[in-house]
Specification:
Blueprint lengths: L1 E4 L3 H4 L2 E8 L2 E6 L2 E6 L4 E2 L2 H28 L4
Length: 78
């Protein structure tokens, strides 16, 4: 079964893999290493779903970094 992985999208992009669904866990091999990820959270049936999740993760990461930047700007040293 073909699926799209979004878990590593911020560092390695969305990629396509072949694997099998075992309950809610999708098992696949990549570069000779077996991996297992949660279906519908990190693994998606279509590339559009995976890209949508990657966009959401990117936006969440940007918000988090903006909060960190704001805290650093407000920091005062005595």
């Amino acid at each position: 079964m073909k699926a799209y992985i979004s878990k590593y999208a911020l560092t390695a992009d969305v990629y396509e893999v072949e694997g099998r669904l075992d309950g809610l866990v999708f098992r696949y091999q990549r570069k000779g290493i077996e991996a297992a990820l949660l279906w519908c959270v990190e693994v998606h049936a279509t590339k559009e779903q995976a890209v949508s999740m990657a966009d959401r993760r990117r936006d969440d990461r940007i918000k988090s970094l903006e909060k960190q930047i704001h805290k650093l700007k407000m920091l005062e040293f005595k």
